[in-house]
Amino acid sequence: MNIYSVNLSGPAPWGFRLQGGKDFSMPLTVSRLTPGGKAAQAGVGVGDWVVSISDTNAEDMTHVEAQNQIRAATDSLTLTLSK
Amino acid sequence: MMTMTQMETTVHYDNGYDEYQYMNQEDEWDRDNLLDPAWEQQQRKTFTAWCNSHLRKAGTQIENIEEDFRNGLKLMLLLEVISGERLPKPDRGKMRFHKIANVNKALEYITSKGVKLVSIGAEEIVDGNVKMTLGMIWTIILRFAIQDINVEETSAKEGLLLWCQRKTAPYRNVNVQNFHVSWKDGLAFCALIHRHRPDLLDYSKLNKDDPLGNLNLAFDIAEKHLDIPKMLDAEDIINTPKPDERAIMTYMSCFYHAFAGAEQAETAANRICKVLGVNQENEKMMEEYERLASELLEWIRRTTPWLENRTPEKTMAEMQRKLEDFRDYRRQHKPPKVQEKCQLEINFNTLQTKLRISNRPAFMPSEGKMVSDIASAWQGLDQAEKGYEEWLLTEIRRLERLDHLAEKFRQKATNHENWASGKELILSQNDYETATLIEIKALLRKHEAFESDLAAHQDRVEQIAAIAQELNELDYHDVAAVNQRCQSICDLWDKLGTLTQKRREALERTDKLLETIDQLFIEFAKRLAPFNNWMEGAMEDLQDMFIVHTIEEVQSLIAAHEQFKATLPEADAERQALLGIHNEVQKISQSYGIKANIVNPYSTLTTEDLIEKWDKVKKLVPQRDGALQEEMARQHANERLRRHFAAQANLIGPWIQTRMEDIGRCSLEIGGTLEDQMTQLKQCEHVIVAYKLNVDKLEGDHQLIQESLVFDNKHTNYTMEHIRVGWELLLTTVARTINEIETQILTRDAKGISQQQMKEFRSSFNHFDRKKNGAMETDDFRACLISMGYDLGEVEFARIMILVDPNGTGKVSFQSFIDFMTRETADTDTAEQVVASFRILATDKPYILMEELRRELPPEQAEYCIMRMPPYAGSGAPPGALDYTAFSTALYGESDL
């Protein structure tokens, strides 16, 4: 378990695909990275789990909640992930 | 007594010559010529009176002084009268010589009295010589009336004068200096009278200037009251310058004798009185002595017996009172008596001394009152006293001891009585009749304790008796009561002893009986318990709910039951024995009158229980027989059912199995189209459905079996459940397989997978489905992926696993496999297709409006979208714009951010 944080500077797009959520009984995962995107540049890896979004614990978030949380970040987005 | 030497007579006729002297007789005759005729007259009167005053005692008188004495007879008589002595017998002749003789006798007598008669001859007298006669009479007067006067050691004339002076001394107007002029005023006479007899005249009324009155008064009174005849003449005295001394002296001598005689008589009387007084005093003293002696002796006589009284009193209080009385006696009563005795002795001694001094004989007390008597009586008293005191103290000590003993007795008796009270009652109790064994034992213990208590008291009872004995010996006053009490104590003691013994016996007897009963009870209990258990066991067994499933089981039960029945007689015997014990107990308690509630303490079970249970057992036996038989029948019936079921199941089971195989085969088949497969399967399904009837029938049989509670069936390996499950599985398998085929068809159509591809998928899947159960294990799948060229890390594989096996069953179905295989190429489309669809509806806008949704979609879906779609966050959007892109991606769980 390797937990790390990234701070992406805005605005969106952040350059990654989020998959999963509580309603899908799957952990929130990064399923794809836009090559050269901000997430990829920050060192996010495909298959990494999203632990928290903007310092909010993402374990129990539904897909929509996670989506909204990320959309709420405008100037910068802080993510804590786990490889 | 006058002596002769003192006899001197002197007659003074001088005027105022005061010297008095009595001359000798010789001198007298010398004054023959000196005799005054006045005086002669006076003398004659006076002397005559004087002689008559004496002669009247002889019963005769003289008239004429010179004549009547001539014969000498009256002279002799006069002398006799005056002296009180007898003269010689007078001569009774009348001759001269007779007369002379008589006169001579008289004269001799006078001479014999110590008077010197000079110149007085008998012849002159016989001849009647006046002078001589007067002289002789004067001599007589002098000698017999005056000579013996003795006043304060002064005698005769001087004495008389002194006497007159002394007697008249208190009367200041009287001054007696002589026998002539001092008397002239008469006051002297009166004073003299008054001095001796104040009652005869009132002197204060007399007057000096009335000499006549005074004189006459005095002469009258003297004559009337003093028995002194008139010898003087008042006028003569007054008229004569110097009255005749001799006449006055003669007259005064009569006075002297009258008074002084009285005085002498008085003195004599005094002396006598004195003597008598002394006598009387002595007599009184003697009487006093006698009286005191009597009293004292009386007192001693009274007291001595009291002191000698040795009657003991009963109580110490009384004795102490006696002691007190004795003390009183010692302190109050005796001392005065001691004093009395002392006084008596003193009196006695004084009396004796007085008597001795006054020349009287010694005093001899009357009989029994002698000093010695008194002394001895007193001694007796003292002794009695001493003895009494000692006796008192001894008695008191004795009584003290008695009191002490009596009290001791009382105390001990009371203590004992207290202890003993109620014991009789306790010992007479019949509490053992209703006592249980434990109680009897307790009673026995108590009784033991009591017995030792009793023994301990034996001593005390003996002590009490000993004290009573001593009280008897010491003669205690209330010994009767003591004895009575002692007796009752002893009686009660004996009684207690007897009762104790009896009670012991009763208790022991009862104890033994109860022991016996107890033993019986124990035995009863000992035997009843197992028997009861046996009975209970038997009852239980007999009522035992048996679940048997086989005929053999029933048979063995029946066999057991028969075995059991065989044991009944023995049990019955035991029952009899137990009842026997019980009856024995009843018999014992009845015949020995044990009234206690005879309950078996060792057993809660009674004979009633025993009997009841036995009856139950007896009843149950045939019941069981019946039940077993019933069961047997049932088992037989069940067996039949089983067989029937088994027959059916053995047909159906394999049939299902065959069908399942068919289906499996069918689905695994590679050759032929999906439609072909479908048709085959449908056919199969049809057949299956038609076969349901059999299954239902089997269900019916099964129900019967179940209702008969038959749960096993050795005639078939197939249970209804097997069949049912198999049947359902068959149904579901066929349905699922059909569904799978349908899905495959759909998928094929949707994904445009060709038949060939399908075959390939199928072949791969079959290949890796090692277990050939239509699903791949995780490892199988991994192997499959590797074979297809997927180089997977664990993470990726895990992700993929999540995708293909979202439920985590560990199995990958063919459908999932296909989905996975086809997804990779087309996974983005689905979400994009939806986005594209929304774009069309939103007329190429990046957002959609609510009215557009409502316009294009059915109301339900429209509202769903409106609710779920997030607001569009991009720029240039009107309010209420919705982000359908985010929504769509969210639908698939994938969002591009």
TrEMBL record, chain A:
One molecular function GO term is: muscle alpha-actinin binding
**What are the residue boundaries of the PDZ domain, all occurrences included?**
9-83
Short name of one Pfam family: PDZ
Q: Which Gene3D superfamilies match?
A: 2.30.42.10
For this chain's UniProt record, which GO biological process terms are given?
actin cytoskeleton organization; heart development; muscle structure development
Q: Transmembrane segments in this chain: where?
A: none
* Places the protein is found: Cytoplasm, Cytoskeleton
Descriptive protein name = PDZ and LIM domain protein 7-like isoform X2
UniProtKB/TrEMBL annotation, chain B:
Which key words tag this protein in UniProt? Actin-binding, Calcium, Coiled coil, Cytoplasm, Metal-binding, Repeat
Q: Which GO terms describe its cellular component?
A: cytoplasm
**Coiled-coil boundaries:** 275-302, 440-474
Source organism superkingdom? Eukaryota
* Start and end residues of each Calponin-homology (CH) domain: 41-145, 154-260
EF-hand domain location: 756-791, 792-827
Compartment(s) where it occurs, according to its Swiss-Prot or TrEMBL record: Cytoplasm
Predominant location category: cytoplasm
UniProt-listed Gene3D superfamilies: 1.20.58.60, Calponin-like domain, EF-hand
InterPro entries on file: Actinin_actin-bd_CS (IPR001589), CH_dom (IPR001715), CH_dom_sf (IPR036872), EF-hand-dom_pair (IPR011992), EF-hand_Ca_insen (IPR014837), EF_hand_dom (IPR002048), Spectrin/alpha-actinin (IPR018159), Spectrin_repeat (IPR002017)
Q: Name one GO molecular function term.
A: actin binding
User: What's the family?
Assistant: Belongs to the alpha-actinin family.
The molecule here is called Alpha-actinin-2b
Q: Which gene encodes it?
A: actn2b
